[in-house]
Amino acid sequence: MNKLLTPDRQEIERHDWTTHEEGSSRSAPTLGLGDLLMVLSRRKYLLLGTIGIVTLLGIINVYMMTPLFTANTSVMVDPREQRVINIESLVAGVPADQSTMESEIEVLKSDELATRVIKQLGIDRLAEFNPQVAAEQNPDAFKMPSLRDLPPVQWLKSLIVTEEPVVPDPAAEEARLQTTILTTFLSRLSVVSVGRSRVLTINFTSQDPALAATVANTIANLYITQQLEQKFDARQKANTWLGERLTRLREEVETAERAVETARAATGVVQGRDAGLVNEQLTQLNTQLVMARAENNTVQAQLRSVENAVQARGARAVFDVVDSTLVNGLRAQEATLRQREAELLNNLGPRHPQVVDLKSQISSIAGEINNEANNRLRALRNQAAVTQQRVTSLEQSMGRLETEATRLNQSDVEIRALQREAEANRALFENFLARSKETQSVDLEQPNAWIVSTANAPLAPSYPQKTLLIAVALVMAIGLGLVLVFLAEQLERGMQTQEDIERMLRLPSLGMVPLVRSGRLSRNKSPQDYALDKPASAYSQAVKSLFTSLIIAHQRKGSGNIIMLTSAVPGEGKSSLAATLARVIAIAGRRVLIIDCDLRRPNIHKVLNLPNQRGLADFLNGDVTLPDVMRTDARTGADVITAGSPTDYPEETIRNPLFDQMLFNLRPQYDMILLDAPPVLPVSDTRILAEKASQTVVVVKWRKTPRKLVQLAIRQLLDAGANIAGVTLNQVDTNKAARYGSGEAEYYMGRRGSYFKN
Asked: Gene3D superfamilies under this entry (predicted)?
């Protein structure tokens, strides 16, 4: 049969549809200010209703609240300090730093102080703080049941727990009650500091204004009394501790002083004198030792030179190192005599008496020189021994003095350490003795705080702040209303605008058909009659616009003239729209045939008020001929083939080749043939008809048909080879649709809607 989609075209359409389904979840339209205002406009009743109900409930709740009164007392914290000792304060004042102020706040809010106030004022006997007393005074008061007290919970508990119930312990119950009272009391108490000052404000809240003032004043008084009690206890402990400490210090001072005297007696000297004298002697002796070592080094060097010379050249070599006037004279005489001897030897000979006498004189002088050399060598050796002995003696004396100095210095250090310890113990003892006298004489029982102002019974309640709470309720109501509005928008499953169709389905929108309200219909009239009676109405014009869109699509694509109208699910108004479209086409002077292809639940004969004894099913089953099933709409002249007799196998009936042959024969006779097909999703008939139609129009009921179902129906149509011309939104409430941003709906209402005659 005639198909308008080539295989390539079908693949392109399927690809576009698939990519759209993947992309639609990725990209969401951006909402502008106008879109947001439009959302609020169409959900205004939900928004205003939520705001009104929540605000009203808030106002009722505020006026049902029990009023509470807050009284406050101001206390000044004294920063002055009174120390008992210098090392550590036993009874100290309060420095005015931030940490101390916070510490005092915690003291004022402590469980101990709160318990004293509760006992003193008998607060534990008041119903406001004691739930048992409240239950006794109001036995009929409503109490919200606990989850564990509900019958289902008790029943399950009885199945699980089989042992005997535990008898409550009175002591434990009383402890829990006291804890509840204390917790309630502390929840009503607050202590804050005033700016950067040393003033603390004690606030207490109660249902009774007089009780609130009494509690605030009592807390301040007990706080000061508690300070006095602590100071008295501290004073007693300080006196006891100081007495014990003074006894130990006195013993330590006596022991230290005895140790100093014992150490001095053991050294046998007066501290400082012998050590200084020994140090002075060491200095002098060290100077002598340096000089002696220098002299010894000089003599030893000279001796080594002389001995080396004598060993090399004889005894006379001594005088090469040591100078001697005597030897110099003897050497001069010896030289003169040898010169004389030489002269006489040449003249007289060696045996001459004069020569012999000269030799005797020369020998005598040489002996004297040698004797003098030996004497000088012995003297030099003796001098070296003497200088060495002096050095050794000085070194020994130096060692003895150094040992003595070390001993004296160590003794001096020990004595000074003992003396310092004795002096420190005595100073500490005297300090403690003075502080002990001050502690006994000075009155320390002065509080570190005093009351600046006392609390009076407040005249006006501090809670609830009705204006503020009502404002908060209003803000919460607005917030909840907005949440519900946007939640309702997110839960909106249907199509609202033509933009939704093009964006979500990737298919052309063929227009929006307005809803014809029952108030506009005359008696026993249908929308199909209304379109004829009111040709200038918005409904009639919308159907004509659909007809025009189909003609344009037919001309643009070159497709055939067989148009199938279907929907995803029943109840979309498809048959009514198909009948109206047929009448509009007929009124326009075109030849049109409408065939009811819904063999399961036929509707065309109903909407056009025609008999249905013989129809399409009868023709396809071979019971009648085609002229027997052709009928004509009396008002427009449009030809109609109704569904005919019911059949048990509608799919097989539609697959009958007679159907294709019938369409083939009828196509040239009409400008347009409309097939009113059953819904796509419930049955498979429509997918069979999709191959027979030139174009398919999907009818979607405005805001009703879920988007997922529409997408599924279109996917099945594409898989069946349908050429989908587009989608039409049916039964559109134009008043509401305009608030969804539908541009076409704006022309059906308001200033633009006056163009139509509804």
From this structure: P-loop containing nucleotide triphosphate hydrolases (3.40.50.300)
Q: Which of 402, 383, 380 is nearest to 292 (CA)?
A: 383
Asked whether residue 365 falls in the same domain as residue 507, the answer is no
pLDDT for 554-574, tens place per residue? 777 667 899 999 999 999 999
Mean of the pLDDT values across residues 287-299? 85
Instruction: Please check whether residues 431 and 474 belong to one and the same domain.
Output: no
Cβ proximity of 726 and 508 under 8 Å: yes
CB–CB of 675/564 below 8 Å?
yes
- Quick check: 467 pLDDT over 70? yes
Compute the average pLDDT of residues 78-104: 59
Same domain, 437 and 497: no
Cα-Cα-Cα-Cα torsion 132, 133, 136, 141, nearest 10 degrees, comes to: -80
Which residue in the block uniquely carries the two structure tokens 């043939």?
673
- Region 342-346: mean pLDDT is 70
* pLDDT on residue 619: 96
Q: Do both 553 and 564 map to the same domain?
A: yes
Cβ 671 vs Cβ 638: under 8 Å: no
Going by pLDDT thresholds of 50, 70 and 90, the confidence category of residue 88 is: very low
Residues 327 and 340: their CA atoms lie apart, in Å, by 20
Please give the Cα distance from 676 to 346 (Å, whole number): 184
Q: Is residue 479 part of a domain?
A: yes
Residues 480 and 560 in one domain: no
Range 703-717 average pLDDT: 93
Average pLDDT of the segment spanning 355-377: 70
Q: Is residue 481 part of a domain?
A: yes
Check if the beta carbon of residue 638 is closer than 8 Å to that of residue 591: no
DSSP assignment string, 25-82: TT--PPP-HHHHHHHHHHTHHHHHHHHHHHHHHHHHHHHHSPPBEEEEEEEEEP----
Contacts of 333 (CB under 8 A, 6+ apart): 365
Place of tokens 């108030």: 519
Q: Check residue 631 and report its DSSP letter.
A: E
Query: In the Cβ-directed half-sphere of 206, how many Cα atoms lie within 13 Å?
Result: 22
Co-location of 470 and 430 in the same domain:
no
Task: Please check whether residues 429 and 542 belong to one and the same domain.
Answer: no
Q: Would 101 be classed as within a structural domain? A: no
- Do 429 and 575 sit in the same domain of this protein? no
Could you count the other beta carbons within 10 Å of the beta carbon of residue 638?
A: 25
pLDDT of residue 309: 67
Which contiguous run of DSSP H or E holds residue 361? Answer: helix 353-441
The mean per-residue pLDDT over the stretch 488-515 comes to: 84
Give pLDDT tens digits for 244-260.
Answer: 777 887 787 778 777 77
- End residue of a domain, out of 409, 441, 473: 441
289 membership: H or E segment, kind and range: helix 273-313
Phi and psi at 724, nearest 5°, equal -85, 115
Closest C-alpha among 595, 510, 514, 575 to residue 547: 510
Rounded Cα distance, 732 and 539, in Å:
10
Could you tell me if residue 166 is inside a domain? no
In this predicted structure, what is the pLDDT of residue 655? 94
Taking each continuous run of H as one helix and of E as one strand, the counts in the chain are 28, 12
Q: What is the spatial distance between Cα 652 and Cα 576, in angstroms, rounded to a whole number?
A: 26
Q: What are 667's two structure tokens?
A: 């196509």
pLDDT of residue 416: 74
- Mean pLDDT, the chain, rounded, equals 80
CATH code, domain carrying 621:
3.40.50.300
pLDDT value of residue 86: 45
